[in-house]
Write a sequence for this structure.
């Protein structure tokens, strides 16, 4: 109850703060500035208290709250229990609001030093305000009787919660969403600075305070994306690190826009150009966060993805659309009206200049982002065109981004070798020569032996060139001032990552194998032996497999378990990391020979009903349960109940078989019946109806003997698994990490620059 | 200034054509069995698993076979490369991605399962103590 009230209080204080800040911008009254600041800090305090209350409700298992009941349970360990804070839609909006508010405190201090406080904080406060409105619409503090009025008595508290989806019960769940949402929250800052710049009619200076935030946002969001990829690869068993799923794309697109913005802003710092482009890109980073949120949270994608997209209800749907419209209109209209007064510096556009390379690179990144967002929006587009939702195939993303990837690789190399404004052509060719020749040689080797696809070979060339050129540049910078190495380090990471993409996807080997217990099997040069399973974490089972290659032993233990939450089999792969490659084992099923479940089909039959099973027709005639047996059962003696079945094969007359259940000393034993040595019938359940005999039903397990014979020639269990060898996958991970280190170096340097400038200004 | 805008414009137009072409080519349409049989493209086939017919995994070929009934009541055999997907047994509906083969079965590369009721809480579950 108190939580809901706190959200409303925060909404009101935030509204007052936004209005005060805005009026201060118009009128410049000092008391208004003070009011804006005070009410913003009050908002933050209230949002933090709300979150604390929310966390308290979760930790103390207050299941009378719908959210707590829906996502947590008493059995969860504390870290996972805390993570249920953001397991559902309401909670994840809460987390987003919390991070936005906290970032706002730092932004307030930072922007006030730069003289941007009223403008930046009125815009950033508006973001906070709309998130708070979302929390009022999607209230995380609803009681169960408010969620289902009339169906649940007021004051009812369920004994336990539904629990957390086992797919999310993982340490990544504890950290990944937090990183991702801090990234989303940071993307609001460049937007706020861009709009503030237009409010102040200052089109050049805003980029200095905005840059560290932008690079920081790209760093955090990039880390979040990488963690998501690793989560999918290592635990969810998707087989790869990237699946072009809407959820993944929706974090990638804002990140790509932020990367494009970083490059063109760098260009504006040096040459003064791209003022309009930078305003647009900085705003688009945040608008893309909003649009992506809309795609994944509004239910518009429907059935087109592996993820279930829950419909959040009409109000939340329109609020999301309202947010996108409001923030696009604010930014778009201001940019349009100010377009004439934004200065166009007299830049000589030399094609041999670094700014031109940066411009091309940013255009390629934006084009890739646009292709991806169009593909992700395909259910909406196809619904408008054909009236039916459908998604694009994964191949669309590869086809469209591959040519752009080639261009990006080449530019990442050339751009670093070019000078600002203009470069000497001869000088350029001279520095280009070494990396270009080396990259061409490398590509020629790779192409000749392994890859025969032209575009992929070009992509390898681009990546190799970027790698060599940037190593050359980085070595030179490290001799001077390593602080300036951020850019070239990031580009080295990019190149390594690109090489990793090709290596891990083109040389990926896959094979499905059936491992009989205790019997070594050869598979892609590895010897695999399934040794048995052991229980882990209570209800899960780890299937131990020894992997041997060239005398080296590795042990992997993929996990399978039945989840009552999902009513299905859950599978987690296991990986042996061999530095140059990963051996990846994803379990599929365990075929057990005693009544192996996989080859058994269960059929339910009403009395007199006929159904086709495999190649036979099965009719349930009646139960075989003579009167004297009934008497025996009442006396507690041994009983035999049979089910009379008429079986008709493709040819020949129907045959009557009678599988039975024998109840002896309180235990039941199956007496299977066999038809022509091909099918075996077992009674799996009996549902006699005493009142109306014709409604009696029986469930028969039908086993195809020919099928199970082929699978179980050996004794013991058979583990079916998909084994794959993923070479150089470590290149992808190390590439991403190097890339992020580059961002980190740049963030620190830009932040230091900003504070150095302040110190020197103070001295003056 | 002029030639630069022309060249830039041409590049943008080319990219739009390239993008729309790729989009149309790789758009995987939702369809029923009759529609999937007519098309030779990759499609998404929506329907329900016919639980009365056999569904089995062949460990030798590593294929999972089941029968799918679409909304019109038509049914066809689906052969999936790989094992039964998670939640297959309790899915309210399944979506198979793939194409029809000349042998008369639907060859799927991917099968998605939908169990919406499992993710949306129902008030009837409140009393369950699990």
């Amino acid at each position: 109850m108190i939580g809901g009230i706190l959200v409303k209080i925060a909404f009101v204080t935030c509204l007052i703060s936004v209005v005060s800040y805005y009026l201060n911008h118009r009128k410049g009254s000092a008391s208004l500035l003070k009011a804006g600041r005070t009410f913003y800090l009050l908002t933050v305090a209230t949002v933090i208290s709300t979150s604390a209350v929310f966390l308290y409700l979760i930790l103390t298992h207050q299941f009378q709250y719908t959210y707590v009941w829906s996502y947590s349970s008493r059995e969860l360990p504390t870290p996972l229990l805390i993570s249920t804070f953001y397991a559902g839609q309401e909670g994840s909006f809460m987390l987003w609001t919390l991070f936005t508010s906290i970032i706002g405190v730092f932004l307030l201090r930072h922007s006030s030093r730069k003289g941007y406080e009223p403008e930046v904080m009125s815009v950033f406060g508006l973001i906070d305000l709309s998130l708070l409105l979302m929390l009022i619409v999607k209230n995380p503090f609803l009681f169960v009787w408010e969620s289902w009025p009339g169906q649940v008595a007021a004051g009812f508290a369920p004994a336990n919660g539904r629990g957390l989806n086992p797919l999310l019960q993982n340490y990544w769940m504890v950290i990944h969403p937090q990183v991702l949402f801090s990234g989303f929250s940071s993307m609001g800052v460049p937007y706020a600075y861009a709009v503030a710049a237009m409010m102040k009619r200052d089109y050049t200076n805003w980029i200095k305070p905005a840059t560290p935030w932008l690079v920081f946002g790209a760093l955090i969001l990039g880390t979040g994306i990488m963690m998501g990829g690793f989560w999918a690869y290592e635990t969810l068993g998707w087989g790869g690190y990237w699946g072009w799923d809407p959820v993944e794309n929706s974090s990638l697109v804002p990140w790509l826009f932020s990367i494009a913005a970083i490059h063109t802003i760098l260009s504006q710092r040096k040459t003064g150009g791209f003022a309009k482009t930078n305003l647009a890109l900085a705003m688009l980073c945040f608008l893309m966060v909003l649009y992506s949120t809309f795609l994944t949270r509004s239910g518009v994608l429907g059935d087109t993805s592996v993820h279930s997209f829950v419909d959040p209800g009409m109000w939340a749907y329109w609020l999301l659309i309202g947010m996108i419209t409001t923030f696009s209109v604010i930014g778009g209209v201001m940019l349009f009206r100010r377009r004439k007064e934004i200065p166009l510096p007299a830049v000589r556009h030399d094609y041999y200049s670094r700014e031109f390379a940066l411009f091309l690179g940013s255009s390629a990144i934006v084009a890739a982002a646009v292709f991806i967002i169009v593909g992700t929006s395909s259910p909406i587009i196809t619904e408008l065109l054909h009236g039916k939702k459908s998604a694009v195939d994964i191949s669309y993303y590869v086809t469209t981004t591959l040519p752009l990837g080639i261009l990006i690789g080449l530019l990442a190399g050339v751009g670093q070798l070019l000078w600002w404004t203009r470069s000497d052509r001869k000088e350029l060719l001279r520095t280009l020569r070494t990396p270009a020749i080396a990259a061409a040689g490398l590509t020629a080797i790779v192409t000749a032996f392994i890859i025969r696809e032209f575009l992929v070979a070009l992509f390898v060339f681009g990546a190799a060139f970027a790698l060599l050129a940037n190593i050359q540049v980085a070595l030179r910078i490290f001799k001077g001032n390593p602080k300036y190495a951020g850019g070239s380090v990031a580009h080295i990471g990019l190149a390594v990552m690109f090489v990793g993409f090709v290596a891990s996807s083109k040389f990926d080997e896959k094979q499905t194998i059936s491992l009989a217990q205790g019997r070594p099997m050869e598979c892609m040069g590895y010897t695999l032996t399934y040794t048995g399973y052991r229980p882990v974490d209570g209800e899960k089972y780890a299937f131990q497999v020894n992997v041997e290659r060239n005398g080296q032993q590795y042990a992997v233990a993929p996990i399978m378990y039945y989840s009552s939450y999902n009513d299905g089999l859950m599978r987690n792969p296991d990986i042996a990391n061999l530095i140059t490659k990963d051996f990846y084992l994803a379990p599929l099923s365990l075929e057990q020979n005693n009544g192996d479940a996989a080859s058994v089909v269960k059929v339910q039959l009403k009395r007199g009903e006929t159904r086709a099973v495999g190649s036979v027709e099965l009719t349930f005639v009646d139960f075989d349960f003579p009167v004297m047996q009934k008497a025996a059962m009442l006396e507690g003696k041994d009983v035999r109940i049979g089910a009379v079945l008429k079986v008709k094969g493709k040819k020949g007359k129907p045959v009557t078989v009678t599988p039975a259940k024998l109840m002896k000393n309180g235990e039941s034993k199956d007496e299977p019946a066999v038809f022509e040595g091909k099918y075996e019938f077992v009674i799996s359940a009996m549902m006699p109806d005493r009142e109306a005999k014709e409604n009696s039903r029986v469930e028969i397990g039908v086993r195809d003997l020919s099928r199970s014979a082929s699978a179980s020639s050996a004794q013991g269990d058979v583990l079916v698994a998909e084994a794959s060898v993923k070479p150089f996958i470590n290149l992808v991970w190390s590439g991403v990490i190097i890339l992020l280190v580059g961002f980190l170096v740049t963030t620190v340097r830009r932040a230091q620059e900003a504070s150095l400038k302040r110190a020197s200004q103070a001295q003056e | 200034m002029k030639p630069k805008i022309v060249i830039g414009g041409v590049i943008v137009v080319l990219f739009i054509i390239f993008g729309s072409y790729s989009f149309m080519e790789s758009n995987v349409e939702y369809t029923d069995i009759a529609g999937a049989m007519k098309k030779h493209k990759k499609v998404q086939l929506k329907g329900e698993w016919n639980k009365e017919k056999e569904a089995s995994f062949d460990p030798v070929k590593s294929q999972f076979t089941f029968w799918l009934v679409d909304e019109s009541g038509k049914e066809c055999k689906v052969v999936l490369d790989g094992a039964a997907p998670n939640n297959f047994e309790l899915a309210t509906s399944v979506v198979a991605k793939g194409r029809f083969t000349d042998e008369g079965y639907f060859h799927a590369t991917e099968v998605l399962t939908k169990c919406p009721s499992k993710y949306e809480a129902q008030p009837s579950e409140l009393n369950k103590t699990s």
In short: The CA atoms of residues 402 and 459 of chain A lie 7 Å apart. Residues 594-598, 709-714 of chain A have pLDDT under 50 and may be disordered. The first helix of chain A runs from residue 2 to 27. The two ends of chain A are 55 Å apart (CA to CA).
